[in-house]
Amino acid sequence: EAAPLTAVVKKVYDQDIPVIVLDRKVEGDAYTTFIGADNTEIGRQAGEYVATELLPDGGSVVELKGLPGSTPAQERADGFREGIAGNPDIEVIAEGVGDWLREKGQQQFEAILQAEDQIDVVYSHNDPMAEGAYLAAESAGRADEFEIVGIDALPIPSGGIKAVEEGRLSATFTYPTGGKEAIEAAKKLLIDCAEVPKEQILDTQLITEENAPQVYSELNAR
Questions:
Q1: How many CA atoms lie within 13 A of 99 on its CB side?
Q2: How far apart are CA 66 and CA 190, in angstroms?
Q3: 3 pLDDT band (50/70/90 cuts)?
Q4: DSSP secondary structure code for residue 70 in this structure
Q5: DSSP one-letter code for 88
Q6: Contact 196, 32 (CB under 8 A)
Q7: pLDDT, tens digit, for every residue of 128-155?
Q8: Measured distance CA(169)–CA(141) in Å, rounded
Q9: What are the start-end ranges of the H helices in 116-209?
Q10: How do strand 199-202 and strand 206-207 relate by DSSP bridges?
């Protein structure tokens, strides 16, 4: 969560110790550099994908949210609303809070399945909760009724890219972890004694069944 981190980070930063804020933002500008993806933009792209590709004629969406109070969860929700705004026939009919966890995402979606007869798309703030939704749908015999879209696309056997490739998820969006960029920033600060940008925003990419194998191979080759 952003608020509890802010005072601690500021205390360090005010002692002239460089602080690299990775992935989770803090409030204010008391840090050296922030490295992370634009969660609002990722959410917006997910919304646009749903609005134009999956549900061009409209439909019902269920949203599985990440940890309340965390900046990625709020921004991925806000961005998604912006993305679907261009299609007035899309309605978010239910929301569940899965705290980024597959098990809780599964529990939340099990309850939603009991309450909702017509679901066209599930938008999950991350791939583990999306996988949880798939498990709940499979258990209920409803896995073929709707599309599931996640975020993260980690290039590992248990990650979102393989889930798309194997047909459990319809799509996901890459969420760069920023580790490589963080090490490069630390080197510039500590060894080169150079300045670094205040913000380094990392790009995302849509992963579908068509490009999943190629992107998986490319990311693992780096």
A1: 5
A2: 35
A3: confident
A4: -
A5: T
A6: yes
A7: 999 999 999 999 999 999 999 999 999 9
A8: 16
A9: 127-139, 160-165, 179-190
A10: unpaired
pLDDT band at residue 81 under the 50/70/90 scheme = very high
Region of residue 28 (phi > 0: left; psi between -120 and 50: alpha; otherwise: beta): left
Q: How far apart are CA 154 and CA 216, in angstroms?
A: 9
Q: Contact at 8 Å (CB) between 116 and 135?
A: no
Residue 26 is classified by DSSP as -
Q: Cα-Cα-Cα-Cα dihedral of 40, 43, 45, 48, to 10°?
A: -120
Provide CB contacts within 8 A for 121, sequence distance 6+: 50, 54, 55, 59, 60, 61, 62, 146, 147, 148, 149
* Angle formed by the axes of helices 127-139 and 102-115, nearest 10°: 50
CA distance 147 to 140: 15
Q: Closest by alpha carbon to 46, among 5, 82, 13? A: 82
> CB atoms < 10 A from the CB of 138, how many?
12
Tokens for 154? 């980690």
pTM, rounded to two decimals: 0.88
